[in-house]
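Notes from hallway chat w/ T.B., transcribed later so I don't forget. T.B. wanted the structure written out for a chain they're using in a teaching module, and asked if we could keep both sequence and structure tokens in one place. Agreed to drop them here.
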Amino acid sequence: MSTPVVQNAETKAFDIAWVREQFPSLKLQVNGYAAAFLDGPAGTQVPKQVMDAVQNYFMSANANTCGAFLTSRRNDEMIRSARAAMADFFNCDSDEVVFGQNMTTITLALARAIGRELKPGDEVVVTTLDHDANVAPWRALEEKGVVIRQVNIRESDCTLDLDDLKRKTTAKTKLVAVGYASNMVGTINPVGEIAKLAHAAGALMFVDAVHYAPHGLIDVKALDCDFLVCSPYKFFGPHMGTLYGKREHLEKLKPYKVRPATNTSPECWETGTQVQELIAGIAAAVDYIAELGRHSDSGVKRRREALQAAYRATHQYETALLSRLIAGLQAIPNVKIFGITDTKRFDERCATLSFRLGDPHPTKIATFLGERGIFTWDGNFYALNLSERLGVEQRGGVLRVGLVHYNTADEVDRLLAALREFAARQ
């Protein structure tokens, strides 16, 4: 069965063969089956140019920063180049880009710094839809007397209850923390609208874009958010985290750091020596997405334009795969899908889908699929509040399928066939 081809008036047909050639790991075999990596939300595969960038760093620029010799100068230039790449990715300035160990560590550090400015009775708004890395760091401020307000969801489609968010955002609110997209059910939140609401109340806006980044273009200027975090290992890069912060905030807030470290932003936010070889990989990951954009639309030149072209192409392609997956799942008895399933509302979700197949524990299903070379995740994926709210936490959570642009229709069909086989055995 052939992979669907998506055509756009501005771009040529999506070249899935070219895409898959960029990812060496996609050639993996499991028990005689070709591996189907449907586990993207926990970390995507990486293209060869990311691997090459990491290796080249070790070969030609492996030194600490600010030294008076060749490899150190090369390292400094590499970091500057990586900041510029992420600045294009975010649509911000290079000095508004911070590198860190991962999104969770960055958010914990930022929450501590913001906490220095808060007093008892100040409020922070979080949501039931979010990964706990965008909840627990803010709840830690309760030790200072900060009050945490948690926004509910509409269970029928797993979207935020915006009326509840408006009620809970008041003159006491100092920060609103919202995910761009749910890592469990794929819901895309209207973060631009929420940012306006936060700012109208005099609050800061913090966006967790970890799950959105592989699926949609990020534009922090258009969103007018104050902070936004994401993880390159979720968008085809190495295991690190990145933060966008408005310059005024990065310069005003005081991060916890050692005394000899610079007070200059953004470097003062980067505690200790960074994993510099992986920063080289981050730049290469952004450049891979830009290369995909140029491959899809030969008319684009600048990197930001190429990123825009890439996400136009991948969004359409992933949506076609998602439609195929949902239609197939709905034909299997006892499947319950969580989140938006109406194709007319697919702009409100990304290509991540969670479901239950009757009573069997999701781990049992994931193991069955894994033995057939189909990689999926089971559990709560640290979206603990959502798992509890949906009533699945005590039953092992859900099975999650995460589609990205290197997946194919054949892989979706293999998954559906295996699920039908599993269901028939119950």
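Follow-up for T.B.: The chain has 14 helices and 17 strands. Might be a good example for the class.
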